[in-house]
Amino acid sequence: MNAASVIKKMQSGLTPEIPELVYLLDLPEGDELKQLYSAAYQTKLKYVGNKIHLRGIIEFSNICTKNCYYCGIRRGNHNVTRYQIPEEDILSQALEADQLGLGSVVLQSGERSDEEFVSLIERLVRKIKEKSGGRLGITLSTGEQSRETYLRWFKAGAHRFLLRIEASDPELYAKIHPADHSWEKRKNCLTLLSDIGYQTGTGVMLGLPFQTTEHIAKDILFYQDMNMDMIGMGPYIVHEDTPLAKEMPDFDPQRQLLMGLKAIAVTRLLLKDVNIASTTALQALHPDGRKMGLLAGANVIMPNITESRRRAGYLLYKGKPGVNDDSLSGLELLKQEAESAGEEILWNDWGDSPHYFARSKQ
Ligand code: SF4
Protein backbone atom coordinates (compact mmCIF):
# COMPACT_ATOMS: atom_id res chain seq x y z
CA MET A 1 0.00 0.00 0.00
CA ASN A 2 1.13 3.54 -0.58
CA ALA A 3 -0.42 6.99 -0.11
CA ALA A 4 -0.67 7.71 -3.84
CA SER A 5 -2.85 4.66 -4.54
CA VAL A 6 -5.24 5.36 -1.65
CA ILE A 7 -5.48 9.04 -2.59
CA LYS A 8 -6.21 8.09 -6.21
CA LYS A 9 -8.95 5.73 -5.07
CA MET A 10 -10.58 8.49 -3.01
CA GLN A 11 -10.22 11.04 -5.81
CA SER A 12 -12.11 8.68 -8.11
CA GLY A 13 -15.02 8.64 -5.64
CA LEU A 14 -14.46 5.18 -4.17
CA THR A 15 -14.67 4.63 -0.42
CA PRO A 16 -11.40 3.24 0.94
CA GLU A 17 -11.09 0.28 3.30
CA ILE A 18 -10.43 1.03 6.97
CA PRO A 19 -6.75 -0.10 6.77
CA GLU A 20 -6.25 2.32 3.85
CA LEU A 21 -7.62 5.22 5.90
CA VAL A 22 -5.46 4.14 8.82
CA TYR A 23 -2.43 4.14 6.52
CA LEU A 24 -3.04 7.79 5.60
CA LEU A 25 -3.81 8.83 9.17
CA ASP A 26 -0.62 7.17 10.42
CA LEU A 27 1.69 8.80 7.87
CA PRO A 28 4.80 10.29 9.46
CA GLU A 29 6.20 13.65 8.33
CA GLY A 30 7.67 13.22 4.85
CA ASP A 31 6.89 13.11 1.15
CA GLU A 32 3.79 10.94 1.40
CA LEU A 33 2.27 13.28 3.98
CA LYS A 34 2.99 16.24 1.71
CA GLN A 35 1.18 14.35 -1.07
CA LEU A 36 -1.82 13.87 1.22
CA TYR A 37 -2.06 17.57 2.13
CA SER A 38 -1.57 18.63 -1.46
CA ALA A 39 -4.28 16.26 -2.77
CA ALA A 40 -6.70 17.38 -0.03
CA TYR A 41 -6.05 21.03 -0.89
CA GLN A 42 -6.70 20.36 -4.59
CA THR A 43 -9.96 18.63 -3.67
CA LYS A 44 -10.91 21.63 -1.57
CA LEU A 45 -10.21 24.01 -4.47
CA LYS A 46 -12.26 21.87 -6.83
CA TYR A 47 -15.34 21.46 -4.60
CA VAL A 48 -15.48 24.48 -2.28
CA GLY A 49 -12.84 26.89 -3.63
CA ASN A 50 -10.28 28.96 -1.77
CA LYS A 51 -12.83 31.06 0.10
CA ILE A 52 -12.81 31.10 3.88
CA HIS A 53 -16.25 31.17 5.48
CA LEU A 54 -16.50 32.93 8.82
CA ARG A 55 -18.78 32.26 11.77
CA GLY A 56 -18.52 34.55 14.77
CA ILE A 57 -18.87 32.43 17.88
CA ILE A 58 -20.69 33.86 20.87
CA GLU A 59 -20.13 31.65 23.92
CA PHE A 60 -23.15 33.03 25.71
CA SER A 61 -23.23 30.75 28.76
CA ASN A 62 -20.93 28.22 30.44
CA ILE A 63 -23.72 26.73 32.56
CA CYS A 64 -24.00 23.05 31.71
CA THR A 65 -26.10 20.21 33.10
CA LYS A 66 -23.71 17.57 31.75
CA ASN A 67 -20.47 16.19 33.00
CA CYS A 68 -18.30 15.03 30.07
CA TYR A 69 -14.99 13.75 31.42
CA TYR A 70 -12.82 15.91 29.14
CA CYS A 71 -14.58 19.27 29.36
CA GLY A 72 -13.40 22.23 31.40
CA ILE A 73 -16.92 23.59 31.94
CA ARG A 74 -18.45 20.25 33.01
CA ARG A 75 -21.00 20.49 35.78
CA GLY A 76 -18.63 18.90 38.28
CA ASN A 77 -15.86 21.48 37.85
CA HIS A 78 -16.38 23.83 40.78
CA ASN A 79 -13.33 25.93 39.88
CA VAL A 80 -15.31 27.65 37.12
CA THR A 81 -17.22 30.88 37.69
CA ARG A 82 -20.50 30.38 35.88
CA TYR A 83 -21.97 33.11 33.69
CA GLN A 84 -24.78 33.78 31.31
CA ILE A 85 -24.57 36.87 29.11
CA PRO A 86 -27.75 38.97 29.34
CA GLU A 87 -30.09 38.60 26.39
CA GLU A 88 -29.67 42.17 25.13
CA ASP A 89 -25.87 41.84 25.21
CA ILE A 90 -25.96 38.60 23.20
CA LEU A 91 -28.13 40.37 20.68
CA SER A 92 -25.81 43.33 20.40
CA GLN A 93 -22.78 41.03 19.99
CA ALA A 94 -24.57 39.27 17.13
CA LEU A 95 -25.40 42.60 15.49
CA GLU A 96 -21.78 43.65 15.89
CA ALA A 97 -20.85 40.52 13.91
CA ASP A 98 -23.18 41.76 11.19
CA GLN A 99 -21.46 45.17 11.23
CA LEU A 100 -18.04 43.50 11.06
CA GLY A 101 -19.18 41.66 7.92
CA LEU A 102 -18.91 38.16 9.38
CA GLY A 103 -22.11 37.03 7.67
CA SER A 104 -23.05 34.46 10.26
CA VAL A 105 -22.87 33.70 13.97
CA VAL A 106 -22.77 30.61 16.15
CA LEU A 107 -24.60 30.74 19.46
CA GLN A 108 -22.80 28.27 21.70
CA SER A 109 -23.32 27.31 25.33
CA GLY A 110 -23.28 24.50 27.82
CA GLU A 111 -26.25 22.18 27.56
CA ARG A 112 -29.61 22.92 29.17
CA SER A 113 -33.07 21.87 28.07
CA ASP A 114 -35.35 23.75 30.49
CA GLU A 115 -38.07 25.97 29.03
CA GLU A 116 -36.34 29.19 30.12
CA PHE A 117 -33.27 28.23 28.04
CA VAL A 118 -35.25 26.96 25.07
CA SER A 119 -37.38 30.09 24.87
CA LEU A 120 -34.34 32.37 25.34
CA ILE A 121 -32.73 30.87 22.25
CA GLU A 122 -35.97 30.98 20.30
CA ARG A 123 -36.34 34.70 21.10
CA LEU A 124 -32.70 35.44 20.34
CA VAL A 125 -32.85 33.74 16.95
CA ARG A 126 -35.99 35.68 16.02
CA LYS A 127 -34.54 39.00 17.18
CA ILE A 128 -31.19 38.48 15.43
CA LYS A 129 -33.01 37.71 12.21
CA GLU A 130 -35.32 40.67 12.58
CA LYS A 131 -32.71 43.24 13.61
CA SER A 132 -30.14 42.15 11.02
CA GLY A 133 -32.79 42.39 8.30
CA GLY A 134 -32.41 38.64 7.73
CA ARG A 135 -28.75 39.11 6.79
CA LEU A 136 -27.05 37.09 9.51
CA GLY A 137 -26.93 33.32 9.22
CA ILE A 138 -27.45 31.57 12.56
CA THR A 139 -25.86 28.34 13.68
CA LEU A 140 -26.69 26.83 17.05
CA SER A 141 -24.37 24.72 19.13
CA THR A 142 -26.54 24.09 22.16
CA GLY A 143 -26.51 20.35 22.65
CA GLU A 144 -28.95 17.48 22.73
CA GLN A 145 -32.59 18.53 22.65
CA SER A 146 -36.00 17.11 21.79
CA ARG A 147 -37.34 17.17 18.23
CA GLU A 148 -39.86 19.78 19.32
CA THR A 149 -37.12 22.11 20.59
CA TYR A 150 -35.00 21.73 17.46
CA LEU A 151 -38.11 22.48 15.40
CA ARG A 152 -38.94 25.61 17.42
CA TRP A 153 -35.44 26.98 16.87
CA PHE A 154 -35.50 26.08 13.17
CA LYS A 155 -38.82 27.81 12.67
CA ALA A 156 -37.44 30.86 14.48
CA GLY A 157 -34.71 31.11 11.83
CA ALA A 158 -31.69 29.00 12.85
CA HIS A 159 -30.49 27.05 9.84
CA ARG A 160 -27.34 25.24 10.94
CA PHE A 161 -26.61 23.12 13.99
CA LEU A 162 -23.34 21.73 15.35
CA LEU A 163 -23.41 18.66 17.57
CA ARG A 164 -20.19 16.75 17.83
CA ILE A 165 -20.62 13.03 18.32
CA GLU A 166 -17.19 13.25 20.06
CA ALA A 167 -16.55 9.54 19.41
CA SER A 168 -18.45 7.52 16.81
CA ASP A 169 -17.58 4.28 18.60
CA PRO A 170 -20.10 3.71 21.44
CA GLU A 171 -17.48 1.96 23.60
CA LEU A 172 -15.01 4.81 23.29
CA TYR A 173 -17.84 7.28 23.91
CA ALA A 174 -18.70 5.42 27.13
CA LYS A 175 -15.09 5.76 28.35
CA ILE A 176 -15.12 9.55 28.07
CA HIS A 177 -18.62 10.21 29.40
CA PRO A 178 -20.53 9.31 32.55
CA ALA A 179 -22.93 6.35 32.30
CA ASP A 180 -26.04 8.54 31.99
CA HIS A 181 -24.74 10.23 28.80
CA SER A 182 -26.20 8.30 25.89
CA TRP A 183 -24.38 7.77 22.59
CA GLU A 184 -27.60 6.54 20.96
CA LYS A 185 -29.47 9.67 22.00
CA ARG A 186 -26.70 11.86 20.62
CA LYS A 187 -26.62 10.03 17.31
CA ASN A 188 -30.39 10.24 17.08
CA CYS A 189 -30.18 14.02 17.60
CA LEU A 190 -28.05 14.25 14.45
CA THR A 191 -30.75 12.41 12.51
CA LEU A 192 -33.47 14.65 13.94
CA LEU A 193 -31.53 17.77 12.97
CA SER A 194 -30.93 16.62 9.39
CA ASP A 195 -34.54 15.51 8.98
CA ILE A 196 -35.86 18.87 10.18
CA GLY A 197 -33.77 20.59 7.53
CA TYR A 198 -30.78 21.99 9.40
CA GLN A 199 -27.39 21.97 7.80
CA THR A 200 -25.94 19.57 10.29
CA GLY A 201 -22.41 19.39 11.58
CA THR A 202 -20.61 16.89 13.72
CA GLY A 203 -17.09 15.87 14.63
CA VAL A 204 -14.88 14.25 17.20
CA MET A 205 -11.89 14.94 19.36
CA LEU A 206 -8.65 13.59 17.98
CA GLY A 207 -5.85 12.03 19.97
CA LEU A 208 -8.03 11.08 22.96
CA PRO A 209 -6.88 8.62 25.58
CA PHE A 210 -8.10 5.09 24.61
CA GLN A 211 -8.52 6.22 20.95
CA THR A 212 -6.77 4.32 18.15
CA THR A 213 -6.18 5.43 14.57
CA GLU A 214 -8.82 2.89 13.55
CA HIS A 215 -11.35 4.77 15.69
CA ILE A 216 -10.54 7.97 13.77
CA ALA A 217 -10.85 6.18 10.42
CA LYS A 218 -14.28 4.93 11.48
CA ASP A 219 -15.24 8.43 12.66
CA ILE A 220 -14.60 9.74 9.15
CA LEU A 221 -16.70 6.94 7.66
CA PHE A 222 -19.40 7.78 10.23
CA TYR A 223 -19.59 11.35 8.87
CA GLN A 224 -20.13 9.87 5.42
CA ASP A 225 -22.77 7.37 6.61
CA MET A 226 -24.64 10.13 8.44
CA ASN A 227 -24.48 12.37 5.34
CA MET A 228 -23.18 15.29 7.39
CA ASP A 229 -22.83 18.77 5.90
CA MET A 230 -20.20 20.23 8.21
CA ILE A 231 -17.31 18.76 10.13
CA GLY A 232 -15.52 20.24 13.14
CA MET A 233 -12.73 18.11 14.56
CA GLY A 234 -10.33 19.37 17.15
CA PRO A 235 -7.25 17.77 18.63
CA TYR A 236 -7.94 16.79 22.22
CA ILE A 237 -6.25 19.19 24.63
CA VAL A 238 -6.07 18.37 28.31
CA HIS A 239 -7.89 20.49 30.88
CA GLU A 240 -6.34 19.76 34.25
CA ASP A 241 -9.61 20.08 36.21
CA THR A 242 -11.17 17.10 34.43
CA PRO A 243 -11.16 13.34 35.10
CA LEU A 244 -9.69 12.54 31.66
CA ALA A 245 -6.53 14.56 32.34
CA LYS A 246 -5.02 11.75 34.41
CA GLU A 247 -5.38 9.37 31.45
CA MET A 248 -2.98 11.48 29.36
CA PRO A 249 0.19 12.14 31.36
CA ASP A 250 2.30 12.22 28.16
CA PHE A 251 0.50 15.00 26.27
CA ASP A 252 2.44 15.69 23.05
CA PRO A 253 1.27 18.87 21.23
CA GLN A 254 3.10 17.98 18.01
CA ARG A 255 1.46 14.55 17.82
CA GLN A 256 -1.97 16.07 18.47
CA LEU A 257 -1.48 18.80 15.87
CA LEU A 258 -0.34 16.31 13.24
CA MET A 259 -3.37 14.08 13.78
CA GLY A 260 -5.63 17.15 13.62
CA LEU A 261 -4.23 18.09 10.21
CA LYS A 262 -4.21 14.57 8.79
CA ALA A 263 -7.82 14.01 9.84
CA ILE A 264 -8.86 17.22 8.05
CA ALA A 265 -7.04 16.14 4.89
CA VAL A 266 -8.51 12.63 4.85
CA THR A 267 -12.00 13.97 5.57
CA ARG A 268 -11.72 16.46 2.70
CA LEU A 269 -10.58 13.74 0.31
CA LEU A 270 -13.46 11.48 1.26
CA LEU A 271 -16.34 13.94 1.74
CA LYS A 272 -15.26 16.56 -0.82
CA ASP A 273 -18.04 19.20 -0.72
CA VAL A 274 -18.66 19.57 3.03
CA ASN A 275 -17.62 22.53 5.14
CA ILE A 276 -14.70 21.70 7.42
CA ALA A 277 -13.59 23.93 10.27
CA SER A 278 -10.02 24.82 11.02
CA THR A 279 -10.58 24.80 14.76
CA THR A 280 -9.22 26.98 17.54
CA ALA A 281 -7.67 23.86 19.10
CA LEU A 282 -5.21 23.71 16.16
CA GLN A 283 -4.19 27.28 16.90
CA ALA A 284 -3.77 26.39 20.56
CA LEU A 285 -1.14 23.83 19.56
CA HIS A 286 0.74 25.97 17.04
CA PRO A 287 0.62 29.73 16.31
CA ASP A 288 -0.01 28.90 12.62
CA GLY A 289 -2.33 25.99 13.39
CA ARG A 290 -5.43 27.54 11.86
CA LYS A 291 -3.61 28.37 8.64
CA MET A 292 -2.17 24.85 8.54
CA GLY A 293 -5.75 23.56 8.84
CA LEU A 294 -6.79 25.64 5.82
CA LEU A 295 -3.90 24.27 3.79
CA ALA A 296 -4.84 20.71 4.78
CA GLY A 297 -8.37 21.17 3.39
CA ALA A 298 -10.47 23.16 5.89
CA ASN A 299 -12.55 26.12 4.66
CA VAL A 300 -14.28 27.52 7.76
CA ILE A 301 -12.92 29.63 10.60
CA MET A 302 -14.91 30.54 13.67
CA PRO A 303 -13.49 33.68 15.29
CA ASN A 304 -14.52 34.17 18.88
CA ILE A 305 -16.57 37.35 19.20
CA THR A 306 -17.73 36.80 22.77
CA GLU A 307 -17.07 39.99 24.75
CA SER A 308 -13.51 39.58 25.98
CA ARG A 309 -14.24 39.86 29.72
CA ARG A 310 -16.35 36.66 29.51
CA ARG A 311 -13.92 34.52 27.57
CA ALA A 312 -11.86 33.23 30.48
CA GLY A 313 -15.04 31.55 31.75
CA TYR A 314 -15.32 29.32 28.67
CA LEU A 315 -12.11 27.34 28.84
CA LEU A 316 -12.96 23.94 27.46
CA TYR A 317 -9.25 23.08 27.54
CA LYS A 318 -5.93 24.49 28.72
CA GLY A 319 -4.26 27.29 26.68
CA LYS A 320 -7.29 28.21 24.57
CA PRO A 321 -6.11 31.07 22.31
CA GLY A 322 -7.67 34.51 21.90
CA VAL A 323 -8.94 34.74 25.47
CA ASN A 324 -7.65 38.30 25.84
CA ASP A 325 -8.12 39.53 22.24
CA ASP A 326 -10.90 41.82 21.18
CA SER A 327 -12.93 40.91 18.10
CA LEU A 328 -11.25 43.46 15.85
CA SER A 329 -7.68 42.42 16.59
CA GLY A 330 -8.71 38.77 16.15
CA LEU A 331 -10.12 39.58 12.71
CA GLU A 332 -7.01 41.52 11.74
CA LEU A 333 -4.90 38.47 12.54
CA LEU A 334 -7.25 36.32 10.54
CA LYS A 335 -6.94 38.54 7.47
CA GLN A 336 -3.17 38.24 7.65
CA GLU A 337 -3.41 34.46 7.98
CA ALA A 338 -5.77 34.22 5.00
CA GLU A 339 -3.50 36.33 2.80
CA SER A 340 -0.40 34.37 3.70
CA ALA A 341 -2.22 31.11 2.91
CA GLY A 342 -3.31 32.45 -0.50
CA GLU A 343 -6.94 32.30 0.58
CA GLU A 344 -9.72 34.84 0.46
CA ILE A 345 -12.19 35.64 3.22
CA LEU A 346 -15.80 35.68 2.10
CA TRP A 347 -17.36 38.64 3.92
CA ASN A 348 -21.10 39.17 4.46
CA ASP A 349 -21.99 35.68 3.33
CA TRP A 350 -23.59 32.73 5.14
CA GLY A 351 -21.04 30.37 3.61
CA ASP A 352 -23.41 27.42 3.42
CA SER A 353 -22.20 23.89 2.85
CA PRO A 354 -22.48 22.87 -0.83
CA HIS A 355 -23.09 19.34 0.41
CA TYR A 356 -26.36 20.42 2.01
CA PHE A 357 -27.76 21.59 -1.31
CA ALA A 358 -26.49 18.49 -3.10
CA ARG A 359 -28.14 16.15 -0.60
CA SER A 360 -31.35 18.20 -0.57
CA LYS A 361 -31.73 17.42 -4.28
CA GLN A 362 -31.26 13.64 -3.71
S1 SF4 B 1 -18.76 19.04 26.31
FE1 SF4 B 1 -20.64 20.27 26.19
S2 SF4 B 1 -22.19 18.99 27.20
FE2 SF4 B 1 -20.21 18.16 27.81
S3 SF4 B 1 -19.75 19.18 29.75
FE3 SF4 B 1 -18.79 20.41 28.11
S4 SF4 B 1 -20.27 21.98 27.56
FE4 SF4 B 1 -21.35 20.40 28.75
Description:
Strands 2-3-4-5-6-8-10 form a seven-stranded parallel sheet. A three-stranded parallel sheet has the order 11-1-12, covered by helices on one side. The protein has a two-stranded parallel ribbon with strand order 7-9. The chain is built from 15 helices and twelve strands. With 362 residues, the protein is an alpha/beta fold. The protein has one domain (3-361): Aldolase class I (TIM Barrel), CATH 3.20.20. The model has no long low-confidence stretch (mean pLDDT 92). 48% of the residues are buried. Helix 6 links the parallel strand 4 (137-141) and strand 5 (160-162). Helix 1 (3-11) packs parallel to helix 3 (31-47), helix 2 (18-25) crosses helix 9 and helix 9 (213-225) packs parallel to helix 10. Bound molecules: iron/sulfur cluster. Iron/sulfur cluster binds at residues 64, 66-68, 71, 73-74, 110-111, 143.
In short:
The protein has 362 residues and is of the alpha/beta class.
Keywords:
single chain, about 350 residues, alpha/beta, TIM Barrel, 7-stranded parallel beta sheet, 3-stranded parallel beta sheet, 15 helices, 12 strands, binds iron/sulfur cluster
